[in-house]
Amino acid sequence: MTDNTPSTAAAPASRRSAGMVALVFLTFFVISLITNVIGAINADVGQSFGLSLTFVGLLAFAFFIAYGVMSIPAGMLVERTREKPVMIAAFALALGGALLISLFPSYPVFLLSLFLIGSGMAALQVAINPLLRVAGGEEHYAFNSVLAQLIFGGASFLSPFIYSYFVQNIGKPGAENKPLIGLMSKLVKPGLSWVSVYWVFAVIVLVMIGVLAAVRFPVVVRKEDERAGAWATHKALFKSRTVILYFLGIFAYVGTEQGVSFWISKFLKTYHGYDQQTVGAHRVALFWLLMTIGGVLGLVLLKFLDSRKVLLGFTAAALVFLTLALFGPGPLALVMFPLMGFAASVMWPIIFSLALNSVESHHGSFSGILCTGIIGGAIMPLIIGRLGDILGLRQGMFVLYLTLGYILSIGLWARPLITNETIAMKKKKEEA
Q1: What's the CA gap between 24 and 11, in Å, rounded?
Q2: Burial classification of residue 390, based on how many CB atoms lie within 10 Å of its CB (0-12 exposed, 13-18 middle, 19 or more buried)
Q3: Do the beta carbons of residue 193 and residue 107 sit within 8 Å?
Q4: CA-closest candidate to residue 315, choices 347, 338, 286, 292
Q5: Measured between alpha carbons, how far is 160 from 225 in angstroms, rounded to an integer?
Q6: In a 10 Å sphere around its CB, with 0-12 CB exposed, 13-18 middle and 19+ buried, how is residue 5 labelled?
Q7: What is the pLDDT along the chain (432 residues), one digit of tens a residue?
Q8: What share of the chain is helix, strand, coil (3-state, %, to 5)?
Q9: How many Å from the N-terminal Cα to the C-terminal Cα in the chain?
Q10: What are phi and psi of 33, to 5 degrees?
């Protein structure tokens, strides 16, 4: 896995499938809808169960630690049984988790529920990321990954509004006349209106299981180096400096993304007195909306610039936005926290594509290792919460400077074997 001269070699067109790409995008949408509501509801959950910041941070830990447990086994399972059964089983796990908290709401049950849902989401991520690279073509992977991130951000924007709609209407006089609110009023216990979002997610996941069962998957033939290997293969990969560095990159990115989005609402309430169910939830939604908008800009920039330069520019902007959010007055924080989503929009897809395009073989196994790095979303919010109980939430969020600093460094040392195809590169290839 030594660094070689970058190449723009692409996969054969016969291995590509527009239908598979579309299915991957749909799956990204549902994953995001379910995953990123946590940042909006955590304040309500903490109030419902009387939790400290540390115990609130455990909510993210329970969800994202599942990636550390499930990612590598899921990669091996995909290789053995193929994508469709693994994806159906993953959604079944998520369905079980959503129903568990919906039927038996309590803090311990919610932790178990989040772990089950996280396990399902981890298996889905492992299954769909290599599919996107194979079905869309290696040279288009950075572009397609940013497009997937755009879809991911759009779904994340909707989640807080689903939550806000129910908590603002359940229990309100006359609201029971609205069919959906009336139904939820009967299903959820008083003071636990946030549980209603998991009833909604249970229905969505059930529909996805039906869609996957009905859809005929195209046969995606993977080369040997794109398959998930045995434990020995993963152990060998972990001995590679390149693998470790990119694993830490994914860890740092997800830790940053969740460290910001998870604590936005609580920070605005603690330091500026803004309401968590409305202003706080809407700022979380705006974080994800601006991530979507940033993804659009990223799609354009990746057609003109090397992905490493794009990563450097967006990460530098994130450091500025974070500083202004933490130390600025309330109105400025309302703007800067959502802008962090804009700055983060290209980080995941660029880091992931740089990683897979920086090794010559075992891309399936490497993908599982990279998805294991998503445990950064478990660790960083918990660290912030713990430090927040000791030093204050603002000081706890200082650790984000470390994760952003590491992401910035990737743009300096990355040496991919396959670079993203720009318009200038395509023109040169056509002229050759």
Answers
A1: 18
A2: exposed
A3: no
A4: 347
A5: 40
A6: exposed
A7: 333 333 334 444 445 667 778 888 889 899 988 988 888 898 889 989 999 999 999 999 999 898 888 877 887 787 778 778 889 999 999 999 999 999 999 999 999 999 999 999 988 887 887 677 777 776 677 677 778 877 887 888 888 888 888 888 887 777 667 778 888 888 888 888 999 999 999 999 999 999 888 877 656 555 555 555 556 666 777 778 888 999 999 999 999 999 999 999 999 999 999 998 889 989 999 998 898 888 788 878 888 888 889 999 999 999 999 999 999 999 999 999 999 999 998 898 889 888 888 876 666 677 778 878 889 999 999 999 999 999 999 999 999 999 999 999 999 998 887 666 666 666 666 666
A8: 80, 0, 20
A9: 29
A10: -55, -40
- Domains of the chain listed by start with CATH number: 13-431 (1.20.1250.20)
- Closest to 126 (Cα-Cα) out of 100, 89, 155: 89
C-alpha 108: how far from chain center = 24
Kindly tell me the burial class for residue 177, based on how many C-beta atoms sit within 10 Å of its own C-beta (0-12, 13-18, 19 or more). exposed
- Residue with tokens 């800009």, as numbered in its chain: 297
